[in-house]
Design the sequence.
């Protein structure tokens, strides 16, 4: 298991097209945070009575802003002076092997791990981080569930991001089980690429045509392989897959 460095945002103060990625108050908090009571800046404090941890799930279709929301929460945790550890499945290298990235170009340092491996090694590699995040959790095996439960029981804030449906429109484990166990869940919608209605499904395309229902469940890709679609516009090919 690679050693973990304290995660930090790789965003500059200006994003695409010069759009600020940090508000003026957030930049001031980063610059002067050590001079103030960090308790005032802890946007997501631990549960005050029990001092227990918890699980947050960010889910929804592709292109709905899940990773952007994850990065926003991580940035705010960093402003609050909290140590952050971020993990991403090694299968997904669209933004580099050691980064979590969003479709709009924002990135955060992460540790790539085998999603089918022994995730208990993650616990051994932590060094007091208060916030532990997993991006693209749909690519992980179901042992991610017990790991998240263990981390939360240890008093950590656990943030999990990933899509909850396969390209067939079926539950994409382990997200549905994590949704059931989490204290906080937020589900995002995209915009249907066909009709413009709110989109909740992942439309896989192969050579511009809908994927066959019997195609493999996991295929890493972005705009070249997927569209966000609503229930009405989502479709699958059936019958002879050679046709």
Sequence:
């Amino acid at each position: 298991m690679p050693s973990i460095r304290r995660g930090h945002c790789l965003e500059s103060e200006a994003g695409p097209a010069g759009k600020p990625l940090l508000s003026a108050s957030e930049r001031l908090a980063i610059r002067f945070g050590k001079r103030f009571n960090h308790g005032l800046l802890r946007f997501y404090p631990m549960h005050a009575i029990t001092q227990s941890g918890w699980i947050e799930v960010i889910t929804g279709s592709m292109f709905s802003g899940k990773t952007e929301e994850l990065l926003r929460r991580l940035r705010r945790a960093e402003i609050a002076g909290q140590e952050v550890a971020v993990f991403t499945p090694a299968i997904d290298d669209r933004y580099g092997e050691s980064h979590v990235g969003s479709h709009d170009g924002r990135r955060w340092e992460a540790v790539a791990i085998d999603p089918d491996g022994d995730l208990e090694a993650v616990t051994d590699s932590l060094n007091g981080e208060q916030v532990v995040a997993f991006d693209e959790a749909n690519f992980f095996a179901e042992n991610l569930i017990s790991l998240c439960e263990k981390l939360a029981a240890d008093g950590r804030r656990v943030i999990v991001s990933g899509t909850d449906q396969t390209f067939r429109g079926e539950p994409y484990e382990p997200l549905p089980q994590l949704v059931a166990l989490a204290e906080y869940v937020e589900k995002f919608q995209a915009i249907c690429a066909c009709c413009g209605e709110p989109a909740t499904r992942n439309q896989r395309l192969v050579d511009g045509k809908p994927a066959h229902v019997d195609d493999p469940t996991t295929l890493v890709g972005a705009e070249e392989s997927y569209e966000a679609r609503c229930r009405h516009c989502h479709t699958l090919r059936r019958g002879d897959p050679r046709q």
User: Anything to note?
Assistant: The CA atoms of residues 1 and 121 lie 7 Å apart. The longest strand covers residues 54-60. Helices lie at 24-32, 66-79, 120-125, 143-153, 175-181. The chain has a mean pLDDT of 82.
